[in-house]
Specification:
Elements lengths: L8 E3 L1 H22 L1 E10 L2 E8 L4 E3 L4 E2 L1 H6 L2 E2 H8 L4 E3 L2 E4 L11 E3 L13 E7 L5 E10 L7 H45 L4 H15 L4 E8 L2 E9 L7 H17 L3 E4 L3 E2 L5 H13 L2 E11 L2 E11 L7 H72 L3 H32 L7 E4 L1 H14 L7 E4 L6 E4 L1 H17 L8 E8 L2 E8 L6 H4 L12 H4 L7 H10 L4 E7 L3 E9 L2
Parallel strand pairs: 19-21
Antiparallel strand pairs: 1-3, 2-3, 2-11, 3-6, 4-5, 4-9, 7-8, 8-10, 10-11, 12-13, 12-17, 14-15, 14-16, 16-17, 18-20, 21-22, 22-24, 23-24
The structure holds adenosine-5'-diphosphate.
Length: 596
């Protein structure tokens, strides 16, 4: 054959795609320049040596002399252990090359021979000449083999050196091709994993994430389908099933998968059930047999079981299945699948925590709503009898005065009257508090705050009959527009200005009320130079019914509900309140609301 003619070449589709032209050339060089009729390349996949390309020969016989198609040879894998422990020790060491004479080669157990008879004077069709290809760690990565020397002779020692050079070149090409393939694979898998995380980071649920990335996972892992199941207590729920379905799993198979997933998460492993091997599945021989039946029935090559978990808990499982004829799982793929299991597990656990929290918030809200309704009902129920008591009290005072018994009865009646007035104030504040707690009672619209600040201040001035200290307002010319409930705003002003006036002695400096817009916020400041609030009290003043123990504050009438009402109203307006105060030098309350 002319050395420039390309040799016939058979390769598995997969190796054609990944190994490329350079490997073909390296194999051809071994044949043409090494003087062989045929050469083969095998690579190690997982724990098998898998032939992926054959150059120079097209027809083969099996060990019994029957013809076998090249596709069968390309599919024939030999366990690495068998190669290393049984075949290799039989070989003569020729440097890089290994030679096993036909009487030791144990054909027909090991392989096949070329159909053409080579009437070599020395070379026997069952002789084996090959090169184990190892990486720098010494791990077997592939095997190059040569057959049918064109001169029918065993290569003599002087030609072996040349042959070694070609073999070394072919080995390097093979290792580089494998490296490139691994790199491409890791890149493909890394892209799938990164996409998963980027969607997860957007706060989507695990169902949504899986729904969106399943197609990519299916492509990345070259699987026929996937199924994700979550464990909720003793319940198992299928979250997502994509492409080829597994159908309803028999209870024993489902429980093998459940048990195995828990165990796999503990051990930080993934499970593999393939037609020719089962790894890390926790089942009885009978159950595993039924698992095999399932693979056969569904035309599957393998199922990989990946636990989803976080911390100590296994929260579910995801199974990937490959159809018959699909490649075996590589270590990189299994590792990435495991990583994805961890990522999804973390997302699942965060999601569950979030749901539990939302549930707790819902319950608290329901409780809060119940409390508000109860307060409103009690206050309403008290209002009428109180009015009756007040009316009758006035009548009794009037009658007592007429009966000239006023001297004895009046103080008692007046004390009862003060008590009734106080109860009436509490009832009124309770009703305001209940309204402030009820989001449905708030009707927000775009308003200019200024008129409501003015009317609030006027209401206070009127109620206390012109406060001795006086109230100064500093209001802007421009409207300060906010999205708010006008009644709520007026209530805030009334309560804050009312307090400022109430807690400022009659000879004290005037209370000041100012309104301004700062950037995208409206700021209302109510400041007084009254009795002030101790730092200790400042942390409690917004709590319902809190009143300071300071005698100066106690001397003033109050319910301890005013600031709680302000706080509740602001909560419904996305606003906040801050206080700056010191005993003896006054208090400044700052209300901040988002401005429109
Ligand atoms: P009250 O009806 O008692 O005024 P509030 O909820 O309005 O109830 O206020 C709670 C407590 O905060 C008051 O009892 C008082 O001790 C203190 N306080 C509120 N505003 C002022 C102020 N401007 N100056 C001094 N103390 C104040």
């Amino acid at each position: 054959m002319d050395a420039t003619d390309p040799l016939p070449w058979s390769a598995s589709e997969w190796s054609e795609a990944t190994m490329g032209e350079s490997l073909r050339l390296a194999a051809e060089n071994l044949c043409t320049f090494g003087g062989f009729g045929a050469s083969g390349i095998a690579v190690v996949r997982e724990d098998h040596v898998v032939p992926i390309a054959i150059a120079g020969a097209e027809r083969f016989l099996d060990g019994h002399g029957d013809p076998i198609p090249v596709t069968d040879i390309l599919g024939q894998a030999m366990p690495v252990a068998l190669f290393e422990d049984t075949l290799l020790p039989l070989a003569e060491d020729w440097g890089l090359l290994r030679y096993i004479p036909h009487d030791r080669s144990q054909m027909p157990e090991f392989g096949w021979r070329l159909e053409a008879a080579y009437a070599g004077t020395e070379w026997h069709p069952d002789d084996l000449l090959f090169v184990p290809v190892r990486d720098e760690t010494g791990r077997l990565r592939g095997v190059l083999s040569m057959d049918a020397p064109t001169d029918g002779l065993l290569p003599p020692p002087d030609r072996r050196a040349l042959l070694e050079r070609y073999a070394a070149q072919a080995s390097r090409v093979l290792l580089t091709a494998l490296e490139r393939e691994e790199l491409a694979e890791r890149q493909r898998l890394a892209i799938a994993a990164r996409r998963l995380l980027s969607i997860g980071a957007a706060g989507a649920s695990v169902e949504e994430i899986l729904g969106r990335v399943s197609d990519e996972l299916i492509t990345a892992f070259q699987v026929a389908g996937l199924r994700a199941t979550v464990f909720e207590g003793d319940e198992r729920r299928v979250l997502v099933e994509k492409r080829q379905g597994l159908g309803e799993l028999a209870p024993d198979i489902a429980s093998v998968s459940y048990r195995s997933s828990k165990w796999l998460w503990d051990q930080q492993l993934v499970g593999l059930a393939a037609r020719d091997q089962v790894l890390n599945f926790d089942g009885s021989p009978d159950e595993l047999e039924r698992l095999h039946d399932l693979l056969r029935r569904l035309g599957l090559e393998s199922i990989v079981l990946v636990p989803l978990g976080a911390g100590d808990a296994c929260l579910g499982t995801i199974s990937f299945y490959r159809s018959q004829g699909a490649p075996r799982w590589t270590e990189a793929e299994l590792e990435t699948a495991q990583e994805i299991g961890r990522d999804l597990g973390r997302l699942l656990s965060t999601r569950r925590a979030l749901l539990a929290e939302q549930e707790a918030v819902r319950e608290l809200r329901a409780l809060d709503a119940y409390k508000s309704r109860l307060i409103a009902t009690v206050a309403h129920e008290l209002k009428n009898p109180l009015a009756a008591v007040r009316g009758n009290l006035d009548l009794a005072a009037h009658l007592a005065a007429e009966a000239a018994e006023a001297d004895g009865a009046r103080p008692a009646l007046e004390a009862v009257g003060r008590g009734v007035d106080r109860i009436a104030r509490i009832v009124d504040d309770l009703l305001l508090l209940a309204a402030a707690n009820d989001p449905n009672a708030v009707t927000r619209r775009r308003i200019d705050l200024t008129p409501y600040v003015v009317s609030g201040v006027e209401a206070v001035v009127e109620a206390v009959g012109r406060p001795a200290c006086g109230v100064l307002t500093d209001l802007p010319d421009e409207p300060v527009v906010v999205d708010a409930d006008p009644r709520g705003i007026e209530q805030i002003v009334v309560n804050l200005v009312g307090n400022a006036v109430k807690y400022t002695p009659p000879d004290g400096r005037p209370v000041s009320v100012s309104l301004r817009r700062h950037d995208d916020h409206a700021v209302l400041v109510v400041a007084d130079q009254g009795i002030g609030i101790s730092p200790e009290d400042q942390s409690h003043i917004f709590t319902e019914f809190f009143r300071s123990a300071d005698p100066a504050a106690r001397r003033q009438p109050g319910t301890g509900l005013g600031l709680a009402i302000v706080d509740r109203i602001l909560a419904h307006h996305d606003g906040r309140i801050e206080v700056d105060s010191a005993p003896g030098s006054g208090s400044t309350f700052r209300v901040v609301l988002p401005a429109g």
